[in-house]
Amino acid sequence: MEKKDDDGGTASKAYDIRHYFPNTEHGAIFITTRLSSVGRLGRSIQLEKLGDIQDSLKILASASGRDFSNDPGARLLAQKLDGLPLALATAGAYLNQVSTSCTEYVQMYEKTWLQLHKQSPHLLEYHRALYSTWNVTLQHIQLQNQHAVELLRLWAYFDNHDLWYELLQAGKREKKPVWLHDLTEDKLSFDAAMRVVCEHGLAEPNAYCHEGLSPGSRGYSMHACVHAWTVHVLNAIPSPVLATTARRCVSSHVDHGKEPEFWLVQRRLLPHADQLTSTIDTDVEDSASVFRKFSRLYRGQGRMIEAESMLEKALRCLEKRPRPDHVVQVTRILSMLGDLYLYQGRLKDANAMYERALQGSQKALGLHHKETIATINGLGFCYSRQGQLEDAQAMLEQAVQGSQKAQGPDHPDTLAAMHNLGIIYARRGQLEDAKIMYERALEGREKALGPDNPHTLSTVNRIGSLHLDRGQLEDAKIMCERALRGFEKTLGPGHRKMLLAIHYLAVIFKDQGQLKDAKMMCERILQEYDKMLEPTVVETYVPALKILQTLAFLFKQQGEAFEAISCYQQAQNGFLSVFGPDDEQYVTICGKINSLQSSMEEHSISPGAAQAEECKEVD
Prior knowledge:
mainly alpha; Serine Threonine Protein Phosphatase 5, Tetratricopeptide repeat; 31 helices; globular; NLR-like; TPR-like_helical_dom_sf; TPR_rpt; TPR repeat
């Protein structure tokens, strides 16, 4: 039910519908409406969108007269229309009149939304109202709250889910449109505008609530079809001002990962960043900064390809508009690229980036500046991954001393340098020194960041590995399981930090004789690495090579010699490529392969014989 007033608006409060109720004491009246005020007259039932995609496919099939049982494009279209019956009926009616496939319809929907709906066949008045009433509704919203109209236009540049007050409040006042500053000056103003939008059925408060879990209030969401209308109708001519405003709102929320529970904010920001990346103009003054912050966001969520792309675009921005003060930004981006390449196992590329960054940072900022120290820290860790442990230790000791002097002993950067130095000490067998560094880092991180922060959990995980090195399996298991529970809660599946905790637990299970559990964990980790990294990177990624070593040992213990040799050979090739033929790990693996092959020859086992035995057992 909806009534239009004389000005063309939707008169949600212009009349009292109770005058039309029959004067009787029995029966029931059912009213369908998008007006929240009418819903308060009796018992309100919220009609949700279709939750089962099969129901959406049935509507598409019925309206189009087609069979979509084996059409993946139909499933894609149903997902795009997100369970809204009228949108599904509109799409089906269009497909009934043309030879267009569902996949082609999706492409048109994304590129030419407005033209597509103008050309759709006429539906019943109620169905057609899905699109025609939105413009009428907008006029009425404008009469009530002009800021709400501007908010709808701005929303087109964000994701359609989870728009919250603090997100729009972020950023410098002088860089905001005046209306947005007024809207976010206090939460009452924001809530007033959102209430008008929600009363007219264009958005709704999220059912879940982040309050108490992360900084920020409960968000609002709009249906994907309504969002498409804001994109293609309200922003028929794209607005560079609104696009820039949205980017600044998101980028100003991306911190360095040093704030308590930062990961929860990152999860909320990620869909908005995805929506915005294609709109960033490299000619805008602060685009390099936005790209850099988006890169940090993507890397924090394990999306390395997007993170690298953002940094490369940031460099191009600075190269297009060179200025003397860009030196600092360039060195920072080079150092971040070094971090990214190190994370991916691209050690030569990482080394080159760090050295370029260090040269520029020392010249522009001096030896004791935090940017220089951060680069020294990264370069030291890169040396470690390349087997240059003595050089790595020297660099990281320099980073700890420099950070303590420049930023103090409890600064997150100092604690990170201590954590990394502890790793080097452990790799060199200096276990007491490693313990001291880890305990200092853990105490500082728990105090500054909290016990559930991923950085804190990383140190917990490393202490578990230290117990493992000392043969203290139960203590190791307690620490690594604590870290794993925390990572699963904060970072989700597939994150590198979580995979490292699983690796340590796999080794613990192996040492405790729980070979089946250990093997399952190793295979799980390798599957995640295959998803995260390019195949050529996985082949030389040191953490993956160590997993292959562990898996080879497990195959050997279970009598699966060929599988063990295969895993050892993959690890052997990787260590040879990364560290060369003199590396201790490479030499050790060569010995294990030779030992296994000799044992197989003694027992006259060949691949063909083994396969024949397997066939015999199957028969």
